[in-house]
Known about the structure:
By secondary structure, the chain is mainly β. About 0% of the residues lie in helices and about 45% in strands.
Amino acid sequence: MAGKNQRQHLRIGLVVDIELTLPGNEIMLVQTKNISDGGLYLVIDTRGIPPIGTEVQVRIKNQLGDGEEAPVNRAVVVRHEADGVGLKFLDV
């Protein structure tokens, strides 16, 4: 059925600063547009978009509420859009 939403996880519109680590350990500071249990959408300069299928690492830039550093999560680029990329978490 055309246009049917096939998402498994509810997206939440949330802007959070993220450290995006690309292959080769290049780090980009970006922001989320939305987050779900299965992945996130990052607003990113289109010149810096990694190819679909690229494995990356993401980490919330700020400390968590208890003062601990946020964990690093593995993700893969699954979608390109005009203003950013969609990432799917690995090991979820």
